[in-house]
Amino acid sequence: MKLEGEAVRQVALRLPAGYDPQQAWPLIYALHGSVGGTEFILDYLERVLGEAIERFVIAAPRDYGQYVIHAYPPVSTEHLTVLREIKRLVHVDSDRVYLTGYSRGGHASWTLGTLHAEQFAAVAPIAGTLIAPVPRAIWPLLLPNLTHTAVLNVWGELDTDLDDGRMSPDGGLAAVNRKLRRVAGELGLPLASRQIAGVGHLGVVPPRAEMLELLERRRIHFPEQVRHRFRHLYQGKAYWLEARRLTGSQWSDRLTIRRGPRENIDAAIARALRAQLGELRGSIEGQKIDVRRRQVDPLVVWFGDGMIDWNGSVVLEASRVRDFRGQIEPDLLICLLQAARTRDFERLHWAGLHVPTRGEISRLSAEELDRWLWP
Length: 375
Hints:
By secondary structure, the protein is of the alpha/beta class. The protein has two domains: 11-214, 3-Layer(aba) Sandwich (Rossmann fold); 225-373, no CATH class. Helices cover 26% and strands 26% of the residues. The chain contains nine helices and 19 strands. It has helices at residues 37-49, 78-89, 104-115, 135-142, 172-186, 208-214, 265-274, 332-342, 366-373; strands spanning 11-14, 25-31, 57-61, 92-102, 122-126, 150-156, 191-196, 225-230, 237-238, 241-243, 278-285, 288-294, 299-303, 313-318, 321-322, 324-327, 351-355, 359-360, 362-363.
């Protein structure tokens, strides 16, 4: 598949024996580890799922770019591009796209799922973790992105060694994931954690029944509460909110930390990073919508079936702009243009409101959306 510039990414695509293009199929996006490649992850999923593997289309990109939150220069949009291209080739049910990976693929699943949670019905990182330079500061900032996405995190009890075989001084991946489980619990997140007894980094297998239950989940379309933090503009999409531009200083390869007089280093790092991350927040209460943002200007509020009553008046409030009050009318052309842009035919956007930093909220026109597609 063609990516940005001249880059090409090979993707192994496994179709179920009874594949019928007239039917929308659930998709498992599977990321291999540092060794074994796509052959390993496909064989692994066959062992984990058994005969149930024939219920799913599986896509496994080969030699994908590493995906960690602190990567610099910025990581590419390759995974989003690959997912869109898969939907051109295969009839995918966008409400049932699942993300998984082993080892390095588990790390990448954590980061990809956290930064693009609205794309996935569920995430199942295996023998991996959410890698961050200062986890105690960064995890609480980013994990709430997964509030509406089911996560099954699986690792081995004896996964305690470094890559060179020496015992890790911090207890290795097993200890890190136990800390991650504790932080997720403190945040009240729906994270299921399974430590597999007597197993190290290799041979980790999630309970089949639990994995199959996870793979029946469906994505939420328009949750009443949205909170999403992100680093790069292409990560700034959350259900019915979309950032159009980032403002202010951005998180580069260097970060200046200034501690307050009674502030510990973790709190100081968290405060510094929070100031350089984009943030989208929104709530829906009946016909009233409230939107807040940080480092974002402008943004778009999207509307779809089940989010509002099309026949009633809508109130949209956002900081520093005049409230919008009026009826939102579905527009077929906007729906078609947005579907072409996202390749998402299950969660349709029929209208949008453009929210600037200051001034007046305006209705998004089909002409403007067309320019986003064909600049």
